Amino acid sequence: MSIGFQLQARDGAARRGVVETAHGRVDTPAFMPVGTAATVKAMRPQDVAATGAQMVLGNTYHLMLRPGAETVAELGGLHRFMAWPGPILTDSGGYQVMSLAKLRKIDERGVRFRSHIDGSKHELTPEGAVEIQDLLDADIAMQLDECPAAGRPRDEVADSMQLSLRWAERCRAAFRERAGYGLFAIVQGGMHDDLRRESAHALTGMDFPGYAVGGLAVGEGQAEMFRVLDVTVPELPEAKPRYLMGVGRPLDIVGAVERGIDLFDCVLPTRSGRTAQAFTHGGAVNIRNARHRRDPRPLDPACGCGVCSTFSRAYLHHLIRAGEMLGPMLLTEHNVFFYQTLMHRLRDAIAAGALADEAARIRAEQAAGDIAPMEAKA
């Protein structure tokens, strides 16, 4: 009476598998484009699906404020509301709890906060977070947790982790079990090995359908993030999906897959597309730079997306410099496609037992840098 998860192949700690939900399957390792307000910014749902994405992420905090979870439920749930028929994961609002520190108050009951939109007062409890995600009809819901800010003292991180454990128990009790739907727990504990292990052990004892690693990608650096994963992931159940929240730089994903992570999300590919940055096989490219002004070549010659097969760097540069909305739309489409291609490469490599070679190839591509600029023609 929950989501299903089948492991199909292993290569070292890395896994290839399938998550089965009420609205379809997700091949893992997978990257979920972020649809904060029921939209992956600058993309139509059918265009998101065309990149190869199978699941998207929605944001509980933002959707509860507008249009409201009850409104979404009245209109048939989030899948129908945003015309996305596939699986949806919703976060619980825990990250927003951290980021809106000046607008909220946390206690044992939950979080009381003021809306960043209009200043109205709201309360979010563990039970309320589960109810909202139920109203949204999320295939995978997340427990409400407190995500401690980077650099907090160890005793405060420990208290925060313990609060998240108590909230996890309340979320588990409030969750309505049904076929194809699941609730994930979130491991916290900052950069402290013992706290991470303690959190993981307590949560696995509650028998959640899946487990997330939270509290990373908050400025700690790649080496420290990988160290925390090395400590945390082995403590999680082998037969349950593992989700690394908010991590999305390409080489961060590669390293996390090597350590046994199955699911990812991040705003990076869409946000970067809106700020003239494209991800390519040769690393990140700022298409605003003048060197692209007369370049007739595609953004990424190794990419199979419609943007790269249709438009030149010169045209994309023109759109961005002219402030045309098509520019961010095309860069976003390319970036989401690039991320899905990356995940496809990793899945195939795991299935073939060749992840080490493929990971080395990806790292070498990224280190090589962008293709050399063309000489300007008179």
UniProtKB/TrEMBL annotation:
Chain positions recorded as substrate binding sites: D91, S92, G93, G94, Y95, D145, Q188, G215
Pathway membership, UniProt: tRNA modification; tRNA-queuosine biosynthesis
Keywords: Glycosyltransferase, Metal-binding, Queuosine biosynthesis, Transferase, tRNA processing, Zinc
Keyword Repeat: no
Cross-referenced Gene3D superfamilies: Queuine tRNA-ribosyltransferase-like
Record bears the keyword S-adenosyl-L-methionine: no
Cofactors (names): Zn(2+)
Binding site residues for Zn(2+): C303, C305, C308, H334
Active site: D91, D265
EC number: 2.4.2.29
Region span, RNA binding: 246-252, 270-274
A Pfam family annotated for this UniProt entry: TGT
One Gene Ontology CC term in the entry: cytosol
Co-factor: note: Binds 1 zinc ion per subunit.
Gene Ontology terms, MF aspect: metal ion binding; tRNA-guanosine(34) queuine transglycosylase activity
InterPro entries: ArchSynthase1/Queuine_TRR, TGT, TGT-like_sf, tRNA_ribo_trans-like
Signal peptide positions on this chain: none
Reactions the enzyme catalyzes: 7-aminomethyl-7-carbaguanine + guanosine(34) in tRNA = 7-aminomethyl-7-carbaguanosine(34) in tRNA + guanine
Oligomer status and interactors: Homodimer. Within each dimer, one monomer is responsible for RNA recognition and catalysis, while the other monomer binds to the replacement base PreQ1.
Annotated function: Catalyzes the base-exchange of a guanine (G) residue with the queuine precursor 7-aminomethyl-7-deazaguanine (PreQ1) at position 34 (anticodon wobble position) in tRNAs with GU(N) anticodons (tRNA-Asp, -Asn, -His and -Tyr). Catalysis occurs through a double-displacement mechanism. The nucleophile active site attacks the C1' of nucleotide 34 to detach the guanine base from the RNA, forming a covalent enzyme-RNA intermediate. The proton acceptor active site deprotonates the incoming PreQ1, allowing a nucleophilic attack on the C1' of the ribose to form the product.
Family: Belongs to the queuine tRNA-ribosyltransferase family.
Family matches, as HAMAP family: Q_tRNA_Tgt
Protein name: Queuine tRNA-ribosyltransferase
Organism annotation: Limimonas halophila
High-level lineage: Bacteria, Pseudomonadati, Pseudomonadota, Alphaproteobacteria, Rhodospirillales
Gene: tgt
